[in-house]
Every structure is written in C-alpha cells, then in structure tokens.
C-alpha cells in the first residue's frame, strides 16, 4: 500500500495535530517564536533552514493561526511573526518533548527554564513544582545551560545566551 501524504484516514487528535506541526522544521520555528524570535532573517540564521522551506512553514503557521503576521515597517515592507494563543498553547508540548529528548538521548542540558518568581526549574509540563502552579509563559525565564555553545557564530544564538523571558522579543545585535 502506498504511503499517503497525510493522515486523512486517522481518527485521532494526535494525527490532526501532526498534520500541522509534524512537518520537518515546523516545531522548531514555533520554538524559536516562543523564544522571542520574530523576524524572517532571525529565523533564517538561527535555524540554518533553506529560505523556501522557511517561507512555506511560516505560511502554514500563519494560515493555521499559530503565528500572526504583523507589519513592523512600511518601506521597505517588513513583517514579523508573533505567536497567537494557539501557538502559545504548544509550549507545554515543546517543554515535554525537550525533556524527553534529553532524558532518553543523553544530551547535556542546553537551556534551563525557570519560574521567574522563585527561580525553580519547571517540571515537564511547564509547571513550577515549588509554587505548585502552571507558570504563565511570560513568567518563564530561559538561561543557557552547560551543553550550549557559549561562543556561537550567529547573532540570534548570541542574543539567546542572555537570560530572558519567553515571548519577550529578541533583539539580536547586527552581525
Ligand atoms: Zn515557582
């Protein structure tokens, strides 16, 4: 039987979600957007992704209401991509997926995600085990861990070395 291009025959919410976020690069674009990356060129240099692929993924993500395209400059026209509620709702999934990757594939910790109020590292679904609360994404502080390259070549990776809150727009230094 030929392998279909989609999961149309699957009556399953996971299959429905994977129709949107299961393509290569898509979840990494969402991850970067939650980290505060907003501009096309910043996604491009941070992901090292072919331009046509990035354009296609941004198109899908905006069409599906996961990112919102906003014009921030008129001439020349420049847009940025901002996570919507639907995009932000992927945060616990990404958090859990990241921990799964580290626990099962033995990676040194690349980043810490902490509750801004108390400094505790978040649990697997974005909760604070000390405050016993689900931490709103804007109260999550990300910091570099020991496994991260501390002298990266691209300006976006360099900007992400500074502790920052999720969603806070990233302002990379010009290359
Ligand atoms: Zn806390």
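Q: What amino acid sequence fits the structure above?
A:
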């Amino acid at each position: 039987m030929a392998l279909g291009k989609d999961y149309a025959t699957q009556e399953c919410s996971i299959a429905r979600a994977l129709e949107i976020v299961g393509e290569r690069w898509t979840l990494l674009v969402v991850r970067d957007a939650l980290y505060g990356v907003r501009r096309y060129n910043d996604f491009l240099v941070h992901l090292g992704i072919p331009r046509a692929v990035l354009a296609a993924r941004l198109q899908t993500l905006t069409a599906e209401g996961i990112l919102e395209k906003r014009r921030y400059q008129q001439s020349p026209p420049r847009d940025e991509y901002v996570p919507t509620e639907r995009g932000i709702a992927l945060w616990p999934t990404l958090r859990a997926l990241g921990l799964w990757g580290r626990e099962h594939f033995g990676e040194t910790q690349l980043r810490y995600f902490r509750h801004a109020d108390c400094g505790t590292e978040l649990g697997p679904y974005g909760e604070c085990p000390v405050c016993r609360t689900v931490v709103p994404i804007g109260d999550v502080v990300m910091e570099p861990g020991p496994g991260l390259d501390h002298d990266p070549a691209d300006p976006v990776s360099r900007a992400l070395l500074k502790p920052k809150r999720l969603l806070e727009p990233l302002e990379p230094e010009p290359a």
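Q: And what stands out in the fold?
A: The chain has two domains: 1-89, 90-170.
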